[in-house]
Design a protein that fits this description.
Length: 389
Amino acid sequence: MNQPAPAPYSLLQMVLYMLRLGALGFGGPVALVGYMQRDLVDERKWISQEDYKEGLALAQLAPGPLAAQLGIYMGYVHYRILGATLAGIAFVLPSFLMVVALGWAYMRFGGLSWMQAVFYGVGAAVIGIIAMSARKLTQKSIGRDKLLWAIYLLLAIVTVITESEIAWLFIAAGILVWLLRAPPAWLGRKNLNVAALTQVPMAGSFLGTIDMGLLTQIGIFFAKAGAFVFGSGLAIVPFLYGGVVTEHHWLNDKQFVDAVAVAMITPGPVVITVGFIGYLIAGFPGALVAALATFVPCYLFTIIPAPYFKKYGRVPGVIAFVDGITAAAIGAITGSVIVIARRSIVDLPTVLIALATILLLWKFKKLQEPVVIAAAAIVGLLVFSLRTV
């Protein structure tokens, strides 16, 4: 295996950079990826353009939140597993601590009218943000591909009807596109055990019947969630809703929308909302277990294939499989907009906040989500204060 070239920076410098990015990096996954290119490639020249592109391609192909995986890969380039581990922890830690602090405040002061007012406005704005993100993802990843559109629409409809996300449909979508677009040589052989594939959903149902402790349930659920996040951290939203609200009843609809809002107003990866959700379910131990369970798959999906990515990353079968899963994930995000909107859009002011969010993000392409969230919070406070007058 090739040894990394000498690094023009120390491991400590990379860790400090990731800490800073995790603490101050607003704007979602696309913005965070852009910051890394600007800082590490263009300005500091710590990472070559080739290594950056390979890391970005791997982050897009493998399951896991885009920005977090790219950050892990940046640490891997010159310092391998140790660098990847420390860079990943440094990137996630600041936002994790923030959402835990917000979780404590939410649990302690959640009954106060001012906090209810803030999340009243923010919850409506979140619907607009997710809707615009779904639009961008659809345009970028689906395009005019009829097969991907069929998968996209199917998952959107299933998500709306069931109000949950069926994880094995993601895998089925990937396998379908793989078999149709780049069928393997062994497909025509008689020994293909297709029946085994039908047992996947049954295996998931079996796991769901096992009686286990709350923290164990949290760990298993969030590990599955982390393994099915492709590209944008928002892909985890419908999956979390289906498990946290519909299946396990750990949170109610309002608490879940508030959790998504917390992810929007904090820096770092959007997926860090799992820490807030875990805190609401089981305090700090729940937050820690949820975060670890979500990010460990992302970490493993980066460091394990990294040494082999240059050789196999462009294989047509791999690309086709990921295309199918990505179409399914974006369809689920789109469906989740409708599901969550049913709970957050409750009156005329929330309708107007959601529409205003969509129009602002449509008109001003560089407008960052935290600015919109802050404005929505102010509007929520004003509406509530007028109602009490």
